[in-house]
Write a structure and sequence with these properties.
The protein starts with a strand and ends with a strand. The chain contains 6 helices and 9 strands, in the order βαβαβαβαβαββαββ. The protein has helices at residues 15-25, 44-51, 67-80, 97-100, 123-130, 165-188; strands at 4-10, 31-38, 56-58, 85-88, 107-111, 134-141, 151-158, 192-195, 203-206. Helix 2 links the parallel strand 2 (31-38) and strand 3. The chain is of the alpha/beta class. The longest helix is centred in the last third of the chain and has 24 residues, at 165-188. The strands form 2 sheets. Strands 3-2-1-4-5-6-7 form a 7-stranded mixed β-sheet. A two-stranded antiparallel ribbon has the order 8-9. The protein is globular. The protein has one domain (4-206): 3-Layer(aba) Sandwich (Rossmann fold).
């Protein structure tokens, strides 16, 4: 499979972006980050991209009159940069079919919960508030629902008696930093297969090397 040409969408500090950049820099991931694109100005992720010479830009949703025009501009910038795969790494906007159909089957997300449990925002706190005994993170393909796309891989984290929502979130984040580059590595090795499952809900199979 050709080298992955990645576009990374971000809204915050960019620690998952850093995990990808580190893997690329260490030559453990056959990918190029073509563009880091944020919907918010001044976030840490943009500084992380600049530190290693990766192109970055801001496409603020506040500058558009509606979601369609924002997502059209977002997709246009990614395509102009030569992006073929899009990774949502802490991107805090729900993407509609306007965007997703431009990158059909080529958008991945990292979510800080063991989906299908606790979709949406503040998933770590949801798990802690609910009294879950096991939490974790999920990398999945993005579909037109909210965190409903086919699951590629998950990592679990025990919820300790002494945990707070913040300490739990920090331990989940450590697993995110490991899982996201690993899944992208599988993708670069052409090991990820989306199985239609006889017309039912699609399942993701990961082939052995």
């Amino acid at each position: 499979m050709p080298t992955l040409e990645l576009g990374i969408l971000v809204s915050g500090g960019g620690s998952n972006l850093q995990a990808i950049l580190d893997a690329v820099g260490a030559a453990t991931l056959d990918a190029r980050v073509k563009l880091v694109l944020s919907n918010l100005d001044g976030v840490g992720a943009l500084s992380r991209a600049a530190a290693v010479g990766v192109p970055s830009a801001v496409c603020s949703h506040r500058n558009f009159g509606d979601r369609k025009s924002f997502e059209t501009a977002l997709a246009d910038q990614l395509l102009a940069a030569g992006v073929t795969w899009v990774v949502l790494a802490g991107f805090m906007r729900i993407l509609s079919p306007v965007f997703l159909r431009r990158f059909a089957g080529r958008v991945l997300n990292i979510h800080p919960a063991l989906l299908p449990a606790f979709p949406g925002a503040h998933a770590q706190r949801q798990a802690w508030d609910y009294g879950a005994k096991v939490a974790g993170c999920t990398v999945h393909f993005v579909d037109e629902g909210v965190d409903t796309g086919p699951i590629i891989a998950q990592r679990s984290v025990p919820v300790l008696d002494e945990d707070t929502a913040d300490t739990l979130a920090a331990r989940i984040l450590t697993q995110e930093h490991q899982l996201l580059p690993e899944v992208l590595r599988w993708l670069s090795q052409d090991r990820i297969v989306l199985d239609g499952n006889g017309g039912g809900r699609p399942r993701v199979l990961v082939r052995t090397p």
